[in-house]
Design brief:
The protein is an alpha+beta fold and 295 residues long. The chain is 68% helix and 10% strand. The protein folds into 2 domains: 199 residues, Cation efflux protein transmembrane domain (Alpha-lytic protease prodomain-like, Up-down Bundle); 86 residues, Alpha-Beta Plaits, CATH 3.30.70.1350. β1 and β2 form a beta hairpin. The mean pLDDT is 81. It is a multi-pass membrane protein.
Length: 295
């Protein structure tokens, strides 16, 4: 099992632990806001499972049916997470509306808040780990899971403030109002998770800053060539595909042109560890006199 898969597996266990703690907090208080917080944890467990499955699939090597690998499985996972998040938010809104129509008193609010605080602390620690490792391992599934946990923490803080205010003032409407706030926050998170993943599924290019860095690397390491043009990039999960045309003098031997390609490819691989580089070598009369000038 790879490091990415191990982290995804731990996420499932953390999600189950947080769900159990938050369910206990709801059971003690009867608060619809704490119920909404627990329901969001069910989504956390489901998304962690989806991320684990996707990471295991993405780690498979290329095969005859998938010659470019299985990297996009992580992006599908992130889209599934977004859909589950939105469904949870709609369910919470339904519960909040029912509580508005028939307000219910909160029992043992301070005990429930103390229990919920333990779950929030656990979520906060693990969200930091997921986002940090997701970036380091270039894993969209782990990063998306971490960002979702951050929204869960924000929701939990809002819920805690609202329940404390309801307990001190006796305003029962604050409980469903906070549940509705949680739902809207979850909807916003779901939108960002889905929009970020759709870009990868649509073969969106790397950010302009990264693209500029790639151009500089090609320019610096393609000595002996004339120019490079038609640079194209795309992400597939943690993997990056880079391709471009390299113009060399017409009289240059295949051996010498290949050495230039090897040098450029090595520099790109060092800068972007998980990448596939495709270089199309062309003779001088194919030059476009635009694109990347070789230093």
């Amino acid at each position: 099992m790879t490091k990415t898969a191990r982290i995804a597996a731990i996420s499932v266990l953390v999600g189950i632990a947080v769900l159990a703690i938050k369910t206990l907090a709801w059971w003690v208080t009867g608060s619809v806001a704490l119920l909404s917080d627990a329901l969001e944890s069910i989504v956390n467990v489901a998304t962690a499972l989806a991320a684990l499955i996707a990471v295991r699939i993405a780690d498979r090597p290329p095969d005859a049916d998938h010659p470019y690998g299985h990297h996009k499985a992580e992006l599908f996972s992130a889209v599934i997470e977004g859909v589950l998040i939105i469904l949870a938010a709609l369910f919470i809104l339904r519960e909040a509306w029912a509580a508005f129509a028939e307000p219910r008193a909160i029992t043992a609010p301070w005990t429930g808040l103390a229990i919920n605080l333990v779950a929030s602390a656990l979520n906060g620690i693990w969200a930091f780990v997921l986002i940090r490792q997701g970036r380091a391992l270039r894993s969209p599934a782990l990063a998306a899971d971490g960002r979702h946990l951050l929204t869960d923490i924000v929701s939990s803080i809002g819920v805690a403030v609202g329940i404390a205010a309801a307990a001190l003032t006796g305003w029962l409407w604050l409980d469903p109002a906070l549940a509705a706030f949680v739902a809207l926050n979850i909807l916003w998170a779901g939108y960002h998770v889905i929009s970020g993943s759709v870009g990868g599924l649509m073969d969106k290019a790397v950010p302009e800053d990264d693209l500029s860095a790639l151009r500089d690397l090609i320019s610096e390491h393609a000595e002996g060539a004339i120019e490079a043009h038609d640079l194209r990039t795309r992400h597939a999960g943690r993997h990056t595909f880079i391709e471009f045309h390299l113009i060399v003098p017409g009289e240059m031997s295949v051996h010498d042109a290949h050495q230039i390609c090897d040098r450029v490819e090595a520099a790109l691989r060092e800068a972007v560890p998980d990448c596939t580089v495709t270089i199309h070598v062309e003779p001088e009369h194919k030059a476009k006199h635009s694109g990347i000038v070789v230093l």
